[in-house]
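Hey L., structure's done. Input below.
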Amino acid sequence: MEMIGFLILFPLIVAALLMVVRHNTARNVIVIGGTIAIAVVSVALVVMNLGTAGQYYYFQSEIVNYACMAIGVIIGVTIIAYGIKYRNVWAVILAIIQMGGSLVFEFVFAHDVTCTRGLYLDSLSLIMTLIIGVIGSGICVYAIGYMHDFYFGFHDSQEDNPKDRRPTFFALMFVFLSAMFGIVFFNNLVWLFTAWEVTTICSFLLIGFTKTEEAITNSFRQIIMNLVGGIAFLAALYYLVIEFNCIDFMDFIVFGTIAPALVVLPLTCFSLAGMTKAAQMPFHTWLLGAMVAPTPTSALLHSSTMVKAGVFLLVKCAPIYAVSFAPSILVILVGGLTFLLCSCMAISQSNGKRVLAYSTIGNLGLITACAGVGTAEAIWAAIFLVIFHAIAKSLLFLCVGTAEHHIASRNIEDMDLLFEKMPHLARLMILGIMIMFIAPFGMLIAKWATLVSFVDTKQFVLLLILAFGSAATFMFWAKWMGKLSGVAHTEENIERTVHLTEWISLGTFSFLCIASCALIPVISDFFVEPYIGSVLGISIQPVLDDNLYLASIMTIFMVIVMAAIGRVRSKRVKQVPVYLSGVSVDNGKRIYSNSLSQPQEATARNWYLEEYFGEAKWSPVGTIATYLLLGLAFIYAIMSFVGIGLM
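Output:
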């Protein structure tokens, strides 16, 4: 329990120090030292609890209860203050509703309700601990060099002396890590709700960090949508306390699997909260808008951690979805539609971060759909999708951030010859993309497990969604990888100015990508299967088990081959003339004489099919469809609640 307490409290201490210490070197030392401590303790906690089937820690504290109440008030007042400052009425109204509802809940309904088992640890918690503690820490290290360039090398505003707000930025990052650990470990739902809302306010402040008009607009879009999810979470707490006098999360899971008809309404509310945090349609636009934030924000909040909080909640509720029809259908269809439509819309995007955003939303949709199915195989697939998506997508976000600072663009079409300009970075980006869609790397293995779970449960609509969505995924990843792989002539290497802290994080994430794919059988045996056994009470032997070791061996073989090709490519390659439809004029600049005897540069451009897959065409369709699904689900949930009351 001491390690759990350390992981929750220590980042807050680091954040406080960062707000006080203003010297650059001292701040960097604090960030690096803090991240090393968090990563080491995270790994130690995992090693000491390998294969755990679930362990409660009896811990309750009035101090923590009052602290949670105070934090809720501070969050509400902060949102109201910003809402008044920027004249955003909806943010003010929703913040007042949530803060008022929280205070009424604490003083009127929950003042005598206790949860003796305040903390809970299982294999899913351990997986999330590694994601937060190792990947989250790595992103903070990466941010040291990135934020230096952001302010003093490539600052968007081009101010002569931009105000250095890095202390606030790093402090928010560490507060966010603390809140994520709280979400993972808290079994007391009131404490979990507080940590849930801390991630919301941290995301709001980090999205609006640059204080541009676009950043402020998108930060308020995020806070409004997540306040809706927060109010839904709070409504579920009201129901559980009034009906069952319960704020114990695992008791809710157990009771829900035994009597699912009695928890339809709170489960639907939790589903809405989870889907909002995971940026599922119709709430996907907040994550797209969040891409205006500095790249470490995108990687930490919107790839590896915050959105994972949403699917973490949904996966925890998966055993109830397996026996609860209406909430299950809601989660399955919303997740499936989100995966299909966002994967298609990614085809039309040339902005690298926007492609990553759509891909993130789509993959979260697939995880959501798996959670909604709720079977052992579906949970197995969902957890592996969480793992591989967190690692590979964090690597890609950071690679795009570094590339943007050196080629002054995040547009995929401007990444021509990146293999020559930034060869090491290009290789890492290609690795990340391969993890996302090429066999035998992990994401495709997880998708195959998803396919198996859909077949076993006869989810034929989901099978079609998975097939077409995966085809769209293949198209937009293949286009990007083709751009990165192109080599036409020698360009000056410009990656020598990349900061060491950036290379450390990128190298670490690349190693984690390869290691996680190579160790699929180990992860399954020691983490995923024990979790499924603990929540479903069965021993799972997935159809894929026989092939996991084969996939592991193939991954190691492919990495060796890629390394060998890289060594060969690093040697001088003979340049050949650019004979296209005419005579080569300047090989170095890829210029040739065309059929009209005019000099023309040889270029290659991707096909984005805007007229078929544009946002204007598909986003309204998905938004309307998912709003209808949510409306029907809540009508059914309320009718069930009324019916139970009449009985």
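The longest helix spans residues 213-244. The beta strands are 55-57, 119-121, 584-586, 591-593, 599-601.

-- N.
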